[in-house]
Design goal:
Rossmann fold, about 350 residues, seven-stranded parallel sheet
Length: about 350
């Protein structure tokens, strides 16, 4: 069997995590299949049964990607004569003769929680994803008849309102190589809160800044907040430490010694929530659909309205003052089916 995997758009962040996790799995478990990866650069090592073709010119901008998905990509993919074609980059490809699967993790076009503005500089590209991107995704999905893989029930339900495609659910799983466990972070001095994030507006970092300001006014100072963004000028900088991007192992180490704050307004799943729950970390999460689904049956979580800094400050204050001994110590199952296994099972049905 031959399988072609397209992830030309991946270069960093969550997209690269998805790609490398997929690659690691097939190296270990699917050596009997011939794999061909179409990438933007040489991110993966070739093996006896894995080949990598690079297309850096396609990765340069959205227009070249759309051209690839509309017509030029099919010529390349069909020449490879694959049994299965997998896109890990959200978009389907028209004209592909192989059975097609799309791993879809771009929540912005189908969510209804946040409306972005074309006229705010920091939101303009998000407005394009939300409005124009949605039309492109719908068109490609409908005309390719691709099978779609999503990470959550809520996203499948939302997409079912617009698409008749076969939609499969496969929640992310985390690395079984990580054995870190939470170290009762509320007993540290000062108490440490942690949010692995980017600076995107929908990550809702301002609610943390506002909560910190509320705590300061109440003379509560025995805490600090760690954010994985570049350093910024902010009035709460004595209590907020911006450490920039860190690797995955470092994220786990911070989770093991912190209380996770997760106020994000938009997530298809919320992988840091799953990672934190896997090691028993205490979590303060936005009271939104994705968080409740990710943390289903996890007892070490409290929820707050995502724009309510007063409520978040109250939850932080309770942990700072009283600790978390009153919360049960537990973890949740974080090792779901691998994407390749799901696809092969569906293909063989």
């Amino acid at each position: 069997m031959r399988i072609v995997v397209n992830d030309i758009a991946a270069s960093e962040g969550g997209a690269m995590t998805v790609l490398k996790d997929f690659y690691t799995d097939i190296v270990k478990n699917h050596v009997d299949i011939e794999w061909i990866f179409l990438l933007g650069d040489n991110y993966l090592q070739e093996t006896k049964n894995i080949k990598v073709y690079t297309f850096p010119e396609i990765k340069q901008n959205w227009f070249k990607r759309i051209k690839f998905e509309l017509y030029s990509g099919a010529r390349i993919i069909n020449r490879l004569d694959a049994d299965i074609y997998i896109s890990l980059q959200n978009t389907a490809t028209l004209g592909v003769k192989s059975k097609q699967y799309v791993y879809f993790h771009q929540v912005i076009p189908y969510q209804t929680t946040v409306k972005f503005s074309l006229f705010r500089k920091e939101e303009s590209i998000l407005w394009v994803y939300q409005n124009i991107g949605r039309k492109i995704y719908d068109f490609l999905f409908k005309h390719s008849e691709a099978n779609i893989i999503v990470q959550s029930r809520w996203l499948k339900q939302r997409m079912n309102n617009f698409l008749a495609n076969n939609i499969l659910i496969n929640k992310p799983s985390i690395s079984a190589n990580i054995t870190t466990k939470n170290e009762r972070s509320d007993r540290t001095n000062p108490v440490q809160f942690f949010f692995p994030t980017s600076n995107n507006p929908y990550k809702n970092i301002n609610v943390i800044f506002n909560a910190v300001e509320i705590l300061k006014k109440q003379n509560i100072t025995n805490f600090k907040v760690i954010l994985t963004i570049d350093d910024i000028n902010h009035q709460n900088n004595n209590y907020i430490n911006c450490i920039g991007k860190i690797n995955r192992q470092s994220v786990y180490e911070y989770l093991a010694n912190s209380v996770l704050i997760f106020p994000s307004l938009l997530e298809s799943f919320g992988l840091p929530l799953l990672e934190a729950a896997d090691i028993g970390t205490y979590i303060l999460a936005a009271d939104l659909e994705y968080a409740h689904e990710t943390l289903e049956n996890y007892k070490n979580a409290k929820y707050f309205p995502p724009q309510d800094a007063e409520k978040l400050a109250g939850l932080m204050k309770d942990i700072i003052k009283n600790g978390t001994d009153n919360m049960p110590s537990n973890t949740i199952d974080s090792y779901g089916r691998k994407t390749a296994d799901l696809i092969l099972e569906d293909y063989n049905e």
